[in-house]
Please model this.
Amino acid sequence: MIPSFLKEKETVSPAKPSSRRNFNFVDRTAKNMAAFLLTSMQQWNTSRRTGLLQGLDARVKVIFVLAYVILVSLTHKVEFQLILSGLFFILFLASKINPVRVYLKIAGLAFFFGFLVFLPAALNLFSPGEIIFLFAQFEHERKWLVYHIPKEIGITREGLNLVARISLKVFNSISLTFLLTSTTGFEQVVKALKMMKVPDIFLLTLTLSYQYIFIFSQTILETYQALKMRWWERGARAETNAILSGRMGYLFRKSWEKYDQVYHSMVARGYTGEISLYHQDALKMKDYLFLFIAAVFFAACLFFFL
Amino acid sequence: MRAIFELKNVGYQYTDTRKALSNINLSVPEGEILSIVGSNGSGKSTLLHLMCGLIYPMEGSIAYKGIEFQEKSFKKAAFNREFRSSIGFVFQNSDAQLFCPTVLDELIFGPLQLGYPKNLAIERADEVVRMLHLEAYTDRPSYMLSSGEKKRVAIGAVLTTNPEVLIFDEPMSGLDPKTRSFIIDLIFELSQVGKTIIVATHHLDLVDYLKSRVVVLSERHTIEKTGSSDEILSDTDLLINANLIAEYSHRHNGTVHKHLSLGFLSHRHGGKS
Model:
């Protein structure tokens, strides 16, 4: 029954790879998938700690986040954005969330999506004013159609101020999102959105998407681990592409099957187009107190900084 | 016999609060069949992933043939090549393991990656196809197969590279009795031709059939006991404590019995009537 080659020690030596293969890509993908799963688990853990925000009703937190995102976008003073950053930092500490870990992520995102994206706006081409870093100097300014190239090109004080303000706004908005996701389970957020009359179809799509991103991250991670076990140094880009496209097809088919199964299980349990959730507890005194303080601070900010 | 794997005080945890393994000391000699048993979530799969170099210990050390390895060890081409070609891992989820367009592609994938000549890869695939009775499926995509067929392809895909060590993660889960019996026989025969076999399972009938050395992982994620299969399977209290068997209430003729859940152990009547 057992083939003869399996009865002997392997005699064929694995060939040395002829060229450096794309193995780092596989490693990186597996690491990123593992990181996503780990982050999901860490968020689930932090949302169950006994901290200030964890003790509040999800509806209160959703209202707080939505209101303060509006506040962050309404006000344009750097000092005010700094005050808000301080407030959010205190909330992270009071919610027993490791500030170093969370601020590293927030700073990275704010750097890429805030600072880097808006940095060109600091040039005098877009923000006229006093040039503090000169990049280029021409003999005379030029005009072509609607374009105007000044004599000097550089970063202006006003431009830097604008970039700092926008970066801080991005930083604060991301901080708010992290405050919500780190202290509230995803299912609680969905429930809060339902109470706030967000359409069922949106919630259903959101819930299923989140669930399947999680499931398929696991599948992709396992696939790459299997690949790693059998695919070490050799290979070509075409082979990599063939495997990846095969995997994408597989995931597409699996997701279609899963959604179909979930939908049928919902119909079998009486689903007619409206999601019914079990009764949610009434807001407690501490929820009202938090809302009151947040509202007073909100009003004060509007009064002093707008 | 030299040790294939040597684990010293190995610990691993996924998050601050989710411990997977703690203080694992284990040696796997060449040619041995080792069964790792434990309830769901006891850390069996994590232990296998550590041995396969897919994740790395947070505490303690793991050595493969006397060479301690960590993440950076796999950056060395020679070690990576030697390790990956010697260890065959059959994943619990066959769907995740099978990624080639057809069954035949799947079977020749490993040997081709190792740089073996194509004719040798196809020759080996043919032999494995016959051994695993996959003749009718070679040109089919793996997603069109049943769970049992997928499992056989997953095993075949690993066997074509003729690894020294075969590691199976829950090989019996989701299979029908005929396929289970086939896989038990196959694992046993592979051990008879000198392969080192490591099996993680919570199916005690597999342990009973393989007559292997058994490591019991507790729900506290530590090794509860190591011993022969007969020794472990006769220790009912140990199996109950490790959540590998349970007593069920059973009612007949107006009498309530307590029955153990597994057939290989003596039928025990006890508890309240």
In short: Chain B has ten helices and twelve strands. Chain B touches chain A through 51 residues (CB under 8 Å).
